[in-house]
Amino acid sequence: MGFFSFFSKEKKETLDKGLSKTKESVFGKIARAVAGKSKVDDEVLDNLEEVLVTSDVGVETTLNIIKRIEARVAKDKYVNTTELNNILREEIAALLVGNDNEDVEDFSVPANKKPYVIMVVGVNGVGKTTTIGKLAYQYKKAGKSVYLGAADTFRAAAVEQLVVWGDRVGVPVIKQKMGSDPASVAYDTLSSAVANNADVVLIDTAGRLHNKIGLMNELTKIKNVMQKVVPDAPHEVLLVLDGSTGQNAFEQAKQFTLATEVNAMAITKLDGTAKGGVVIGISDQFKIPVKYIGLGEGIEDMQVFRRREFVDSLFGNTDK
């Protein structure tokens, strides 16, 4: 089954549009950095390093990319600047950790995990609850029955927002009164999901980072309680990051990966920023798959991340 059977022209256009600010910023800078040069020399590499660092790719990942390009230049002896885009494309794609299985349909879940339980973590304001709503919509659109758990019981707005999304998508939301034990909400959600033979469960959690020990204990408790209902839950711990915050997203990723066993990431708000380079750095530094990217306000504007399509969109698809 071919790759583009799952990546439609419409999705490609949404991706291109969503990453347009990053493309214009980053690759406009690269074009200026190599202007008038006939080959990739030390000056070009220095300029390229500055461009990548200032484009929120991150220092360590930038140095990694430069090191890879230096090795290519040394091996090939002569590399001109017109070849630099292709080299960058290849090296950046090699660093990204994402979905490479071309034959897996978008928003599918393992057949032997029912319900498939996703615990969603992230600080307040990154688009966590909105991401849950959009994922619920996509899973339901894919023919899955979905349950939502409002385990962020410390903010009335979080519960209310999740209920709004549940009504909008047409999926049940399990909630309790404000200040209730988040683990109790998660337990009730999984119990209802199992009783009703649901396919997917999405559990919202509190986004506080000021007390890392408290956060770690809370998330661990939620996981332990969920396992009383579904022994291997959660199957996915999804960290939501705001791509427009650039380097702040790195720090959030660091804190949450210390607090819990994150095994997937969603990066939101890429459409309104020139800081899309943060996807490259976070993926490289944390070696955790970027599973979803948010590219707009619309309910459809959440895509499964595919690294080759992402890189093609940034550099321009040479297969056109």
What does this entry show, briefly?
The chain is built from twelve helices and eight strands. With 320 residues, it is of the alpha/beta class. The N terminus is likely disordered.
Total count of helical runs of at least 4 residues: 12
Can you give the helix content as a percent range? 40-55%
In round numbers, the mean pLDDT is 86
Question: What profile does the largest beta sheet have?
Answer: 8 strands, mixed
Radius of gyration: 21 Å
Proportion of β residues?
A: 5-15%
What gross morphology would you assign? elongated
Report the uncertain regions.
1-6
Give the H and E element order.
HHHHHEHEHEHEHEHEHEEH
Question: What would you note in describing this structure?
Answer:
The two termini are 20 Å apart. The chain is α/β, with parallel strands linked by helices. The protein is built from twelve helices and eight strands. A hairpin with a 7-residue loop joins strand 7 and strand 8 (302-304).
